[in-house]
Amino acid sequence: MGILFAAVLHLVAAGGPAHGVPPDPRADRPAAGDAGASLACPEGTVRHVEAAGEARLEGCQDAEGQYHGPLITRDASGRILRRLTFRHGTLDGPARFYAPSGRLVEEGRFEAGVQSGLWRAWREDGSRRYEGAYRAGLREGRWRWWDAKGTLRRETYYDGGRRSGPHRLWWQNGRARLRMQLLGGQPEGRLEARFPDASLALEAHFEGGRIRRQEAGPPPPDAVSPERLAATYRPLLERAAQDLPACLGTPLEPGNGTRRALEAHLHIEPTGSVAWLELSGGAALPPATRACIRHRLEELELPLNGARDLVEVVVPLRF
Asked: Contact at 8 Å (CB) between 106 and 98?
């Protein structure tokens, strides 16, 4: 049985959640970072340097030969790409990731090998990308995503890694694009989608994750057929799948040569938003890997749908 991910992709540029007023795009920008900081090994460890393809790892190893303390990854030019923290071979502590320019682009921390606490990410120009918290490697509480101009695009709530609670998207003009409720990762209750002019695109009601009734407004002039929609979305997802190998293995070994075959079942409403997403064939994947795949797919930007009702597009993903 497929794994259900109630995932609404953030395909819109949005205003603020309550009033449509975009926040200051300069707010919360990271500093240039500590990409030039030196390595300081804890007492009882020795400095260790090794090659990892074209990259170079600089870290500290304990008496058992396991990484303990900071571990720096440098590219072929010597620029720091990431600074991780280990505790006797297990990721545990602050983690920072950098662009080649030295700009901090993501930061958070690991506990006992999994993501924990607040994680934040920025684009290389310093604008915010996302912010949210993990608990025991699973998303928890409110997560938010911003576009390159610094305006909030999406807000979703999580409970134990599954979407639970209100989920909202906004158009660039600040008007609501999609409002829905999720319960245990599945749509529940009322779903309302509107076009940029605020006219109704779709109103639907869910019970137990299944749609019970729906009412659709007139499609816009640029409405496309389900066949054309599938043909448009398939290459976008296939391109996204090219990055999925990075979700396999550990941060030290992105991609372990394992080939995976999944099917993405996207249920798309008239404004082009994916109301929910199912991944079939990934039951054996670790939770962190599934979360990584979901995160990559969430960042896709899809064109306007314009169909009169919910459309399902099935796309094979191989990586």
From this structure: no
Every domain of the chain with CATH number 2.20.110 lies at: 30-126
Q: Which fold has domain 30-126?
A: 2.20.110
Residue pLDDT, tens place only, 64-84: 999 999 999 998 889 998 999
Rounded distance between C-alpha atoms, residue 286 and residue 248, angstroms: 9
| CA separation for the pair 72, 67 (Å, rounded) | 11
Task: Please say whether the beta carbons of 26 and 126 come within 8 A.
Answer: yes
pLDDT beneath 50, residues of the chain: 1-27, 32-33, 249-258
Rounded distance, CA 153 to CA 210, Å? 26
Q: What is the DSSP letter of 180?
A: E
One-letter amino acid for residue 45 of the chain: T
* Long-range contacts from 55-58, C-beta under 8 angstroms, 24+ separation: 55/81, 57/252
**Element (DSSP H or E) covering residue 296:** helix 287-298
Q: What angle do CA 289, 273, 285 make, to 5 degrees?
A: 15
Gyration radius from the chain CA atoms: 21
> What pTM, to 2 d.p., does this model score?
0.69
Please say whether the beta carbons of 130 and 145 come within 8 A: yes
DSSP H or E segment with residue 290: helix 287-298
DSSP result, 50-108: EEETTEEEEEEE-TTS-EEEEEEEE-TTS-EEEEEEEETTEE-EEEEEE-TTS-EEEEE
